[in-house]
Amino acid sequence: MFKSGVGFLALFGLGWWLLGSSAFDGVMRQALLVSGCAVTVGLMLAARRFLPSSAGGPLPVARRRRFNQINGLQWLLIIAIVAVCRHAGVPVLVPPLVAVVVGLHFLPLAAVFEQPRLRIPAALLVASGAAGMAVWLANGPHETVRLVVGLASALSLWAMATWTVAGVASATGQRPGSEGSGA
Hints:
Largest sheet: none
Distance between the termini: 9 Å
Order of helices and strands: HHHHHH
Helix content: over 70%
Shape: globular
Radius of gyration: 17 Å
């Protein structure tokens, strides 16, 4: 499940969902939290059910090194964004800028994993970050910035996870309710 990327997409999608749902209070926020957790668990169970245990497999050394370099750079940029935004007194810009960085990190990963479709979440995350920036530039409330960036990013990652599971399930002829287990 994690080798195929679905586990990471599902969990990071939940993180973005939690950010977006922080724009709400009370029962609405609780409902969003429960639904976000349900989607994440559902995706992980679907990955376990439909993806072969070897999905993704171990990366060759050169690819693993490149993957680690890309992720290391991503995390360094995220740390820098947090530090600079806090120092500048604009922490509201952290989510939009992080969404852009995370989106851009998918572009070299598309080459590393030989998965051109990773360009889709790249574009969607960059767009969600740009939308959040647009809300902020229009003097929108900070809650709206978090809502726009968080929910759009979550839905993008969850859609990619769903696409991955559905693609493997359809390629192997499995359907929900069929008997063979992919795990």
